[in-house]
Amino acid sequence: MAVMEPHDEPYPVRYGFAFASLLGLLVSGEDDQIMTYGKEVGGFYVNPGKTLIIRIDAERPGSIPLRSS
Question: How many domains does the chain have?
């Protein structure tokens, strides 16, 4: 799970994910108004002052390091 909170920007912030380790995995993102899910999600836009929670449904044990672009 990853939590994104862009508090210092006056406009939506883009968080992109392009990792081979995420290919084929179910990724979901939710905030207080929306929820989205799917495989091979490319990224999310997060509005200022909002909190986005990203969940990755990995079918195998272990950890996946995340860095946003």
Answer: 1
Query: Using CA of residue 36, residue 31, residue 45, residue 55, what is the dihedral sign?
Result: negative
Residue 64 lies in a domain: no
Note the pTM of the prediction, 2 decimals: 0.62
Q: What is the tens place of the pLDDT at every residue in 43-68?
A: 788 888 888 888 878 776 766 666 65
How many residues are given for the chain? Answer: 69
Instruction: Mark 25-62 as b/e (b = at least 16 C-beta within 10 Å).
Output: bebebeeeeeeeeeeebeebebeeebebebebeeeeee
Tell me if 32 is assigned to some domain.
yes
